[in-house]
Amino acid sequence: xxxxxxxxxxxxxxxxxxxxxxxxxxxxxxxxxxxxxxxxxxxxxxxxxxxxxxxxxxxxxxxxxxxxxxxxxxxxxxxxxxxxxxxxxxxxxxxxxxxxxxxxxxxxxxxxxxxxxxxxxxxxxxxxxxxxxxxxxxxxxxxxxxxxxxxxxxxxxxxxxxxxxxxxxxxxxxxxxxxxxxxxxxxxxxxxxxxxxxxxxxxxxxxxxxxxxxxxxxxxxx
DNA sequence: CTCCAGGGGGCCA
DNA sequence: TGGCCCCATGGA
Length: 222
Prior knowledge:
Oligomer: single chain
Order of helices and strands: HHHHHHHHHHHHH
Number of helices: 13
Number of strands: 0
């Protein structure tokens, strides 16, 4: 069922999310590693470190862990006393150190980690949890972050607050690998173009974008 | 100097 | 539910 005014498909019957995905893919041709350190302990750790934090600061913290010889969850536990100092560049370091230790204990204790295991830990909301499920465990959960929410509101002109609806919308009919890339493309797009103060004059999606249609005078100034 | 970054929890109405 | 505050560093 389509809600009134909501573009689910175009005239060729393609899903709207796939149209957006393909446009972004064309525009950002250069392939990047969207979430580095996949399949290593650094990936789930960086999911915590990046909470409300600039990625550059996350990289500094990860480099500190590498230089300290910490590369597994066992290493994390064995160096728990040094953790706060090492991740300091990523900010909120007292809270994040606790979260990383809890994460390490879970990974060591449990083999088949499920969504509720992560969600039940303090500091693990849906975004953090789903990024770990998607990028570390290859499970089909589309990650909805603040970038995606802003992107969606601009694109459709509607503020959707329901995480599950957004995840279903953007992840529809996509494979796990496509979900990874699409999420990465949205992040890339929001960092470069669909910023807080958007650069619509260099956006590949203007023909599809509600915000652009309703802010033409603003955008013509360049 | 100010603002904000790939969140989440606690508290309060 | 919805709004606000807190956590903290570092770059623009």
